[in-house]
Model the fold of this input.
Amino acid sequence: QVQLAESGGGLVQAGGSLRLSCAASGIIFRFYTVVWYRQVPGKQRELVATITRAGTTNYADSVRGRFTISRDNGKNTVYLEMNSLKFEDTALYYCSAQGSPTYRGQGTQVTVSA
Done:
């Protein structure tokens, strides 16, 4: 059974940092492009960051320069380092392994207080 488990969310003051983790089981993560999304109720899902199998990264303009996506293939885990957090970063963050099929986790809540 495939499972993606996000962790590391929480409440943080604006300007602070968090590191999110996405741990996979049941699949070999390094064979997948992994995407971090975020979702705010009533708003469209936003793609935050992507890391390909080769390690190429891409970011939404809203987080570029503040967030860093990385992967540890030995731990079958992808990370999202988030610095200089802003109130507007508040959302449910979840990871997704892109493939056929695509897998996603349940998400971890990030709340940034102004």
